[in-house]
Amino acid sequence: MLNDEQLAMPFVVPKRIEAQPFLKWVGGKASLLRQLEEFFPHEIDRYFEPFLGGGAVFFHLKHRFPDMRPFLRDGNKELINCFRVVRDRPEDLMRLLDEHSHGFRADGDTYFYDIRKQHDLTDDLARAARTIFLNKTCFNGLWRVNAKGEFNTPVGSNKNPNLYSRDNLLAASDVLQNAQLEAQDFRKTVDEARRGDFIYFDPPYLPISAYSDFKRYTLEQFREADQVELARVFRELDAKGCRVVLSNSEHPRTRELCAGFPIQVVCEKLHDEQIKILQAVAMNQREAVVEAMKANGGYAMLGHLYKEALKISGVEWGTKTPFKTINRIVQDPKFFFKIRPGLWALLEAKDTLPADLKERPKPESDHTYFQGLLVELGNLRKLSTYVPRQDRGRKFLGKALGDVATLEKIYDFTYDEIVRRAAMVDVIWFSERRFPAEFIEVENTTDIEGKFHKFLDFDVFTTDFRIVAPSARQEEFKSRLKQPVFKSIANRTRFTSYETVAELHSRASAMAETEARWNA
Ligand SMILES: C[S@@+](CC[C@H](N)C(=O)[O-])C[C@H]1O[C@@H](n2cnc3c(N)ncnc32)[C@H](O)[C@@H]1O
After folding, report:
1. Atom 12 (ligand 1): residue with closest C-alpha?
2. Which of 218, 244, 397, 430 sits most deeply, having the most CB atoms within 10 A of its CB?
3. Nearest atom of ligand 1 to the alpha carbon of 27
4. Is the dihedral of CA 394, 395, 396, 399 positive or negative?
5. Ramachandran angles phi, psi of 478, nearest 5°
């Protein structure tokens, strides 16, 4: 049993260190992680890294998302074997590394070249120890192979290198526990990855200078044709619904291969005086729309997406028409479906949507929905908006209609009797002078003529009247309005379809968003 004093002592929780690459790898991304951060998603379940190299990005992401399931791949068999041995036998590995360290200190270059010659080792543990030893003692940590696929980098200048850090190797082993490791070509990712997976591609770069022309990590080398294939794989995975990011060198050919994807330039200092630019294809635009919808409960009005999806960092929308792009994105039936005009939802959220959005819309809820859109439209036009008292509690996309309208009570704009009758109109827009600018009735089930009679009460005022209804009712609207009794309101009573109201609402939201940026 613990005594009181012991109970009062704070528990000592071992600090989890963030594992770092245990190999020095050309093209390693450790120095770029901060800049790449904005391209990574906010949550990751299955993570693919087809060009693993030293694994800097994997170690970073795994620390951020401990539950992430990694699928790590690289064309280099020795590299993958090394990661497996670190995962499964770190203690044995460190013992062999200590032997290498000893041998190298005693016999220097001779020891290095003796070990380098051992191309035919079959024991995985010995192979892994050899890989780490050569990597840490060769020139610049360069893993380069000859035409036979044999490691051929010469010995480096550091004669007393540290082959490993115990804490780091154990931390690396720890985070690799649930990693699936395969030595394979990047093309296989297409068959393995599923919708929603995150894939980070960091291939050997397209050469931009003599310095950067390094593609001999593997026997096969990475050629122009592979870059073209990679672009195809990238597109295929994007079309499948995967979240993809790719880094490559700043080169016109990269831009050509990645045409249609948002591209962002990040800078990397390669040698003391040389700055290399590389591009990353940012999180795609659809992903931003999905995230904005998720944050809103799995559904959203276009107007909401115009505002929220554009705020998500790491996505380039281009300068021209992001609103049109969003409009196009939501029409992809693989990911989204339309609930009502202007209102879209995520296919994957279908079962978890609020009850009133799950079923096919009923005429009564249509009525409230369009009332809500009309109120918001009036608000966007900077008019005061009113809905009848009995409708104030009705739900419009999770909010009470009364909270969306700006007026709690109708303005006393004329005699009590007329104000009382006006108070029953579905939506009224009031001008700055507190005078009705437009009376609007939403009509879906009953007789349109009744609405005209309602409007007649206000024909002495210089206001407009509007019927909002399904487009199929337009003919009925026209023929009824022709009757002589409605002469006093005929030329200022308009018909607007549900679709047009939704469209106007989206456009007004886009305009408001553009203006907000203009004024920012
Ligand atoms: C730029 S490095 C990756 C660097 C890594 N992101 C890091 O942070 O260390 C490119 C990697 O691609 C691998 N590679 C080359 N050709 C490949 C192919 N066809 N399929 C899969 N991997 C390949 C190389 O072995 C090398 O490890």
Report:
1. 51
2. 244
3. 1
4. positive
5. -65, -50
* 299 CB burial (10 A radius; 0-12, 13-18, 19+): buried
CA–CA gap between residue 302 and residue 502 (Å, rounded): 9
Contact between 246 and 258 under an 8 Å Cβ cutoff? The reply is: yes
Q: What domains sit in the chain, N to C, each tagged with a CATH number?
A: 76-175 (1.10.1020.10), 293-314+325-358 (1.10.10), 363-504 (no CATH)
Predicted TM-score (pTM) of this structure: 0.60
Q: What are the E-state strand segments in 270-319?
A: 275-281, 299-301
d(CA 381, CA 377): 6
243: left (phi over 0), alpha (psi -120 to 50) or beta: beta
* Contact yes or no for 31/69 (Cβ under 8 A): no
| Candidate from 29-38, 326-335, 339-348, 358-367 with smallest mean pLDDT | 358-367
- Interval 1-30: pLDDT, tens: 445 555 445 444 445 688 999 999 877 777
Q: What pLDDT is stored for residue 34 in this prediction?
A: 79
Residue with tokens 């597109």: 235
316 touches 252 (CB < 8 A): no
* pLDDT in the model for residue 255: 79
Radius of gyration of the chain (CA): 33
Characterise 443 by phi-psi region: left (phi > 0), alpha (psi -120 to 50), beta (else).
beta
From 33, 34, 52, give the residue whose CB has the most ligand 1 atoms within 8 Å, as the site to mutate. 52
User: Which residue among 60, 218, 233, 278 has the greatest number of ligand 1 atoms within 8 angstroms of its CB, and so is best to mutate?
Assistant: 218
Atom 3 of ligand 1, nearest CA residue: 53
Ligand 1 closest atom vs CA 21: 9
Residue 395, strand partner residues: 400
Instruction: Name all contacts of 89-92 with Cβ < 8 Å and 24+ positions apart.
Output: 89/125, 90/169, 90/170, 90/172, 90/173, 92/125
> pLDDT tens digits for 71-130?
999 999 999 999 999 999 999 999 999 999 999 999 999 999 999 999 999 999 999 999
The residue whose C-alpha atom lies closest to atom 19 belonging to ligand 1 is 185
Q: H or E segment at 494?
A: strand 493-497
CA distances from 506 to 37, 50, 338, 496 (A): 32, 41, 14, 15
Report the atom number in ligand 1 closest to the C-alpha of 76: 25
Query: In the numeric block, which tokens belong to residue 123?
Result: 């024991």
Which residue in the block uniquely carries the two structure tokens 């969306």? 404
Residues 6+ apart with CB under 8 A from 442: 367, 370, 371, 374, 426, 427, 468, 469
Give nearest CA residue, ligand 1 atom 8.
28
